Amino acid sequence: MKKKSRVRREKGKGETEKGEIGEGVKNISPIRRFPDSPFRIFILLFAIHCSLFTVAHAEEKTITLTDAWHSAISTYETVRLSQEDLYQSEKNIDKAISQILPTLTAGANYTKYSEGKTNIQPDNSSSYDIKLSQSLYSGGKEWSLWRQAKKKAEASRHDLETAKEGIVLNVSQAYYAVLKAGKIVEIKGSALKRVTEQRRVASARFQVGEVTKAIVLRAEADVAGAEAEFANAKKDLLVAKDKLSRLIGVTEEFKVVDPNIQTIPDASLDKLVSLSIEKRQDYLQSKIDEEIAGDGITYAWGNFLPSLKLEGVYSKREQDTKTAFFNDESTYAGIIFTYPLFEGGLRKAELDEAKSKKRQAEFKRTSLKKDIELEVREAFHNLEAFSSVIESNKRQVSFAEENYTMVFKQFSYGLATNVDVIDANTTLVSSQSNLINATYDFQMTTLELKKKVGILLDDMAAAK
Fold this sequence. Notes:
The chain is α+β, with helices and mostly antiparallel strands.
């Protein structure tokens, strides 16, 4: 007995036996558990802060319809191109003014002659002169160009407003397309849940021998079809968001929210038509184009009239060696009168062309006025139609939901066939989709009516 106890004591001095490793390490390890230090507390708090920061930034950015409008106007290329056109047209005003103001030019010349010279040839000579020129009369062409430049700048401003209206409408269409696609995803997801439940009921009834295998297979096929439609709906949502992202210049993930219901213009159809003639930017631009064409006729008539120009010159010369007739300084002024006699019929052709452009501008304005009236009437009638369609679709959805609930219960108890359930589900999906489309189409038609009338940008400014 003493010998055994001695052996056990010898093992305790070395490695422990199997099953006693933890205890042995605990006895011989010099490592101790220290209490929490300030450094460890700081590291823990920092990790929590980083995780909360990451979660906060992982949330999607929310973009409202108004945000999308302003983002597109500030970034989209079409608007920026129109802004550059406006800038260039304003610079054309400066160019036209330069034709009216006097011009001042300076010139200098230096000549070194060869060494093999004659007695009358100097060694070198130099000269410089300053010339002032002012047009006194040119048939009114300079002033006509100035008026045209100012009117073209004004037309460019209307064109910029038209570009803004166009991008606002395009952004609205893309925005509502995203909303539509999101609702369709929800509708298809609900439809998938319903057909999955239908498959479960069909399988349960097959297990007890109430239905045939064909009913279960048909349910499986319906589930597969619903899954495919759900996948396509999610794809359409991604595509719609990509199109909206392109318009508004947003690259990070974002989500959209239902905007406020668009207010319908409170006016009769005739008043809206009259208002469109006053507010439509393209119509105002067409009137300016007609005025510019009229100034073009004035410019062409100026080619038939004489021109009068005043010139003054100061000249100074230096020469080594000077000759007997050398004049080192001179100053003179003169009036230049020019009258064209014959130029091969160019002036007549330019005048006829200018008159033709004037008639063309009148035709365009008249045609645009008729088109605007037609567009306003069409948008107004579309808006009235959508109001009735939405109410009908709401009733249809209500009936379809009640019908599906009733038919599915009957199918669960064997009182209806799977075909009845499929028809009820198809009707429900169709009615829900029609309601979503009509609801958002109504909002878009309201915006389209405002654009046709020319008050869309005013509505956008009021929505800030």
